[in-house]
Each structure stands twice: as C-alpha cells, then as structure tokens.
Design the sequence.
C-alpha cells in the first residue's frame, strides 16, 4: 500500500489557499476575494503522479507564526505537534505574487521549523499587468526551496505543485536565520537548559500562549535554571526576529524580483479613492443595497408566482388522482403545502446570494468592511467584527464562527452576541410574505415600497446590532484594546464559475438545511391538525350543521357568498352580452340558484374544517398560547407558527401553509390563503398593517434559531451566553412587536 | 386501502418525530463517532477554558 503524504496549505489571508486546495482536491470549498473565509482546517485527497496520494489540509490564513487569534493558532498548533496525525510531511506556503515580500515572512518561519517547505506563488496571471518580473530559479536557490508559479483563476501550474509534492523528500531542510541572533545570551542559555530540543520550536512555545505536546510550556516554567521573560520583553525579541527575517527576505528578492511601480498604479487606486470615500463611499454602498433589494423584488416575482401556483396545482392533482385516505391528505395538505412554503423563496434567495457573491468576488466587500470600520469604532467594535456581521446576512452560524479571527475576547464575545440581529436568509421568507401581504404595491422614485421596507429591515437589524454592541461594550467588564489592520484585495472580475457555485451552494443549503426540518414539522403539524380527541372534534359536522340551522352562517361568510354570487352574475351577463352563450331567463335563474347552493355548501364545509381545526390537538395547543400572542395582533395559528419557527425562522411560512391547508379543498396559493384569513374578533383581515409590522419586528429581533444557540454555546463554551441572548432577544422582540401593534391597530 | 394509508401515515409520522428528536432533543454525541476533542485555544481570556 502506498504511503499517503500529509500536506498543509499555509499562507497569508486571501492568497488563494482554498482555491489551490480546490484545484488539488477537486473539492469545492468556499472561496472569496476577502480575508478570513477559512477559520477551520479543511481536508481533501489529491492524486499525485506514480499512484501516490496526498492528504491536503487547508488551514486558516495567518501573517506569521506569532499568532494573535484562535483561527491563526490552528497553524502553529499543527506545526509544533509532531504527534498530530495531520502533522505535515510537506508544508506548502501559498503566497500572492503582488505581496511576495510580506508573504515570505511566514515562509521563512515555517522553513526554520525544519519542515520540508515549498512555495506556491499564486495569481501569476496578474504579473504582466502589474509590471512584475520574477526569476524563480534564482529565488529557489536563495530560499533553498522549490517554487510553483500558479494561477488558480487560469488553472495553470497545478501539475507542477503535484510533482513537487510527490518529490517532497528532495526538498532541502535548512534554516534561514540563526535564531540565536535574536537575543544571543537568552538563546544560548535556552540551548544549555534544553539541549535536545529544537531552539526555534522552543522559542515559539515560549512566545505563544498555548500548550503544545510534547514540549509543554510548564516544563520551561518549572525549570529553575531558566527564567521566562516578561511579555513586553518577548514582544521586543519578536520584533528583532521580524527585522532579521526581513533583512534575509530583502537580500533574497533584491536580484530576483522587480516591480515596475508605474504599471502597478492605476484603476485600483482611483476606484479605492471613490469607493472608500468618507461621503461617496457610503452613498455608493447605499445605492448598491437599494439596487439589490429592488432587483430581488422585480426579478423574482415571476418565478415565485409560478412555483406558488405549481404547488397549489400539485396539491389539487394529488387529491383528485390518488385514492381518498389519510396518506393522500398528508401529501396534499401537509407535505406539499409545507415544502411549497419554502421552495417558493428559492428565486429570491438565489438573487440575494448572486449579488453577495459578486460583491465578494470583485473585492468590493473588503471596501465595505473598511467603510464600516469607521462606523463601528464609536460603538466599541473594530472592522474585524464587520466581517462576521456582513456574513451574518447569509447565516448566523458561519458568522459566529468567523469571529474566531477576532483576537480580543471582549470584542469577539460582543460580536457573537450581536450577530443574530443581522438579517439572515432565514428571515427572508417571513419578511417577503408579510411584506407582500401588508405593504402596498406603489413606488417612490422608481423604488417599490416593498423593496424599501425590505431594505429598512436589513438596516434595522444592522443598526440594532451595533447599538447592542455599544451597550454591551459599556456593560461587560472585560479588559480590551485592539487594532484592525486589513488588507485590501485587488479588484477582480468575478469568475462566473465561483458566482454560480456560491449561488448553488447557498440555495441548496437553504432548501435542504431547512427543508428537512420543514418537512418533518409539516408532517407532525398536519397530523396534529387533522386529528383530535375531544367530542367537539369527533362531532364537528353535527355541531356546525345544527349551529348553522339555528343561527345561520356567520355574517362574514354571508357577505363573502353575496360578493361571490354578484361576481358570478356579472360573469354570466358579460358572456350573454358578448354573445359567448345563449341562455333563457329561467335557465339563468336556475344557474344562479345552483351556484348559490354550491357556495353555501362550500362555506358550510369550510366552517366544519375550521371548527375541526380549532378542536384538533393543534387547536388546543394554539388556544393555550393565544393569550400570550394576542396582544401582538396574532391569532392562535400564527402563535403555533411562531413556536415551530423557533427551530428555524423559515419554518414560519411552511407552518402557516400547512395549518391553512388542513381540511381545505380549494386550490389556493399560500399568499392567497394568508390574505383570506379573518380575525374572528373584528371580522377584518388577520394580516393587516398593524399585525404585519408587529410580525416583521418580532422576527427582526427574536432569537428564533436553535442552531445559532448551539453554535454560540460551542464558541463560548458555556450556556450562559446563548441563554442570555435567547432571553434578551425574545423579550426585546416581544416588547417592540407589542408597541408596534398597539400603536398601529 | 384506507387502512393501509393510515398505517403508512403513522409510519411517516414516527419517522418525522424521530428526526426532530434527533435534531433538537437528543444529544449529538449519541450519533457521532468519538473524536479527539483536545483543543488548545490561545489567550487565557479567550473563553474556551
């Protein structure tokens, strides 16, 4: 059996490590044109020449081995622990051709750990444009390594990497700098006390605040012959190390790398000047947001209507085609209705991620982070918190994980606590359906009211997140103080492949991730709504028929029947006057009478279904929680949807779609079903401006996501913070929704 | 036919309930293989200790 080679992909942030990883393994891990996408190691297998296999590890980006944050320490932990099963046989340092000098700092550090190291210089396709010439052979000699010049965008140079990996045993193991030079007395003493240990490895153990087996910091601490330096003394020594390394790097690059600075300047500088401008920068960002939300509404309405009608017809078809029975009802009223409630949002989700992918790929997102850094500072957060807050627009879970690149614990904790306020894609279905129901269709300066409302909700989420951050910054008594340095990536034309892949992956995870939960909940809800134990449920038909006999149909139903009958008469008259059909007055009256009877029968059936639903298991559960949600303008059905959507917010629409379709024989779209719901207390539409705004605000602020709570627990290692988040956000959402409804009703 | 449909519905319902229990109620460790969870994680105040 051939040996598998362990390969670690290491490098500065945003040098394209994950792109190299994808090219080598054939996998499709998320890539983007901004730093900090990879926060955990990822693994894949690469087939090499001569039947050899390589186990490739893609590690989070780090500027050096002097790490400051959790994601960066993953790299140091691996390189210092030879017992780790993933300890690399070869380290590949991926660097960006435009920032080679800075990238080589990390390269020389890794090489000094005596790990076979090769250099991959990525983005080679930009060399001509940027006036860069590189003598790779000479540089290989200077650095004692092998170099692969690649362009992951063009797919060139990947075979060379594979050859070099297969040939890793021939890579020289050398030292670039003499570690003792950093502080001769100190290192000489260190050598004497630990004669068997590698001196540079020991140095890293001393400077990093982590324990690495088998060299444990405690061993060094416990040794009475050797005293550790203070933190500031160690920092000074690290600076001396960096100076020594840059001296070596400058010497190596002096004759091997030339950059024509005139060619390097140009469009990027001009664009940056405008896009990060104090005034125009924000204005442009605001306009881009407007454009995105307008497009989401305009472009997706047609496919959404199509999907909605498709599911309504499919449900009808199932009922008419399959033999009557519980399974047929479950399919038509439970499964299809529930799934339809989520599939309908695919076009909008896809458009949202399409725009986000373009912004990320082009390099504009990093400029947004820079802009936001200015806004965040007065609120006690740095730009490092902006990356998680912006990625929170997709989902709070990766956003909470993205906080690992924040080195300051207080800042990280605050970011974790406020991230769930940003509008994630799971809120989108709730927003879209409620906005469509309660916000009129007019427009202002060419922008629809509905798009403007959606954008306001995004801004509201972000605004509340930073205000909460400011409050938490004042409340939390944790030592703080940090800086934010961010590298601006180059502007690039988004690669269609990457954009399409992002849209596909995000949409798929939205549908499949929530889809399974929605499917299961729809089945359970349908069962609870279609069954009951009480006598009222069992004798629903008799009870309702007797009530109608004595009291007649409720007033609202009679009014509806009258309106529908008038419409039918008009339709008949229209046909007669246009000569579409000939009918004598007697037949006309008979036809109207038959239609009237049909409408009455339908109304009675509807009353029975409604009575059954109210006395089903779910009806009793809903009625039990109704007193809590009634002050917010919701009925018991919405109450059930609010409870079930605690699993995931998007379950809300699926739940309502299922509840409203239980017992219904009509082919109706979700939107129409919701629009037809009547508030029993005032006989007005249940979804009106007051209850709609109340629901929008409730979902904007409530912590309706169990997965986010679980990830917050994992990242903070305690239930204290997720529970605090849950209690605060739920109470806050309730109060805001209550005020909104009571003011607007 | 109706009886068969009812049986199938109860079976599907049991599957749905089991899935929801697995996803939200039962501890994850019951369904995952034991992994090395040792983590060294940076500064003393990083919150992971």
Sequence:
């Amino acid at each position: 059996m051939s040996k598998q080679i362990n390969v670690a992909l290491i490098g500065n942030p945003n040098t394209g490590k994950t792109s190299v990883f994808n090219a080598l393994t054939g996998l499709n891990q998320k890539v983007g044109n901004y730093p900090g996408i990879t926060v955990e190691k990822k693994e894949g297998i690469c087939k090499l020449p001569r039947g050899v296999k390589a186990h490739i590890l893609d590690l989070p980006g780090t500027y050096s081995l002097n790490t400051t944050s959790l994601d960066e320490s993953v790299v140091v932990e691996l390189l210092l622990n030879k017992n780790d099963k993933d300890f690399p046989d070869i380290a590949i340092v991926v660097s960006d051709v435009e920032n080679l000098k800075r990238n080589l700092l990390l390269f020389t550090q890794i090489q000094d750990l005596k790990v076979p190291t090769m250099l991959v210089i990525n983005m080679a396709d930009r060399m001509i444009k940027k006036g860069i010439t590189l003598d790779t052979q000479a540089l290989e000699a200077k650095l004692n390594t092998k170099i692969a010049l690649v362009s992951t965008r063009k797919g060139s140079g990947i075979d060379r990497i594979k050859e070099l990996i297969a040939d890793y045993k021939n890579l020289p193991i050398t030292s670039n700098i003499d570690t003792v030079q950093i502080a001769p007395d100190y290192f000489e003493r260190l050598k004497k006390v630990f004669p068997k240990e590698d001196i540079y490895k020991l140095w890293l153990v001393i400077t990093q605040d982590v324990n690495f087996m088998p060299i444990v910091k405690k061993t060094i601490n416990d040794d009475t012959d050797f005293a550790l330096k203070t933190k500031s003394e160690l920092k000074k020594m690290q600076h001396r190390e960096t100076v020594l390394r840059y001296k070596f790097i400058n010497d190596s690059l002096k004759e091997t790398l030339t950059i024509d600075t005139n060619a390097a300047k140009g469009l990027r500088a001009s664009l940056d000047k405008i896009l990060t401008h104090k005034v125009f920068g924000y204005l442009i960002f605001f306009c881009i947001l407007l454009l995105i939300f307008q497009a989401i509404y305009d472009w997706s309405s047609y496919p959404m209507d199509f999907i909605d009608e498709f599911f309504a017809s499919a449900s009808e078809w199932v009922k008419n085609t399959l033999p009557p029975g519980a399974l047929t009802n479950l399919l038509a009223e439970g499964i299809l209705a529930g799934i339809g409630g989520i599939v309908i949002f695919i076009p909008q989700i896809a458009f949202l991620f399409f725009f986000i992918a373009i912004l990320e790929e082009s390099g504009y997102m990093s400029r947004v982070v820079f802009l936001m850094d200015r806004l965040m500072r007065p609120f006690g957060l740095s730009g490092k918190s902006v990356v998680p807050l912006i990625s929170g627009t997709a989902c709070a879970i990766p956003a909470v994980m993205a906080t690992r690149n924040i080195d300051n614990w207080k800042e990280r904790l605050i970011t974790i606590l406020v991230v769930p306020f940003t509008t994630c894609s799971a809120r989108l279905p709730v927003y879209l359906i409620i906005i469509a129901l309660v916000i009129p269709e007019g427009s202002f300066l060419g922008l629809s009211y509905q798009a403007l409302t959606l954008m306001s909700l995004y801004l509201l989420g972000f605004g509340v997140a930073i205000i909460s951050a400011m409050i938490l910054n004042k409340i939390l008594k944790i030592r703080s103080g940090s800086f934010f340095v961010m590298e601006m990536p180059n502007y690039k034309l988004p690669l269609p492949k990457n954009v399409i892949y992002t849209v596909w992956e995000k949409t798929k995870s939205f549908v499949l991730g929530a889809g399974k939960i929605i499917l299961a909940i729809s089945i359970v809800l349908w069962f609870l709504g279609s069954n009951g134990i009480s006598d009222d449920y069992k004798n629903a038909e008799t009870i309702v028929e007797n009530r109608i006999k004595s009291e007649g149909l409720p007033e609202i139903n009679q009014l509806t029947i009258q309106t529908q009958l008038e419409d039918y008469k008009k339709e008949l008259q229209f046909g007669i006057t246009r000569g579409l059909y000939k009918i004598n007055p007697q037949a006309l009256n008979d036809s109207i009478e038959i239609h009237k009877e049909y409408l009455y029968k339908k109304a009675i059936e509807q009353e029975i279904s409604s009575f059954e639903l109210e006395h089903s298991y779910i009806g009793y559960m809903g009625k039990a929680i109704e007193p809590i949600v009634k002050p917010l303008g919701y009925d018991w059905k919405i109450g059930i949807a609010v409870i079930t959507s605690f699993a995931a917010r998007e379950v809300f629409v699926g739940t309502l779609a299922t509840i409203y379709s239980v017992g219904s024989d009509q082919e109706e779209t979700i939107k129409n079903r919701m629009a037809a719901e009547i508030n029993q207390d005032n006989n007005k539409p249940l979804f009106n401006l007051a209850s709609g705004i109340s629901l929008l605000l409730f979902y904007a602020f409530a912590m309706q996501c169990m997965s986010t709570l679980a990830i917050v627990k994992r990242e903070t290692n305690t239930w204290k913070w997720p529970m605090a988040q849950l209690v605060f956000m739920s109470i806050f959402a309730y109060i805001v929704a209550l005020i909104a409804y009571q003011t607007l009703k | 036919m109706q009886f068969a449909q009812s049986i199938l519905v109860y079976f599907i319902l049991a599957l749905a309930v089991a899935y929801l229990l697995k996803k939200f109620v039962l501890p994850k460790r019951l369904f995952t293989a034991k992994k090395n969870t040792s983590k060294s994680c940076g500064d003393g105040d990083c919150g992971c200790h």
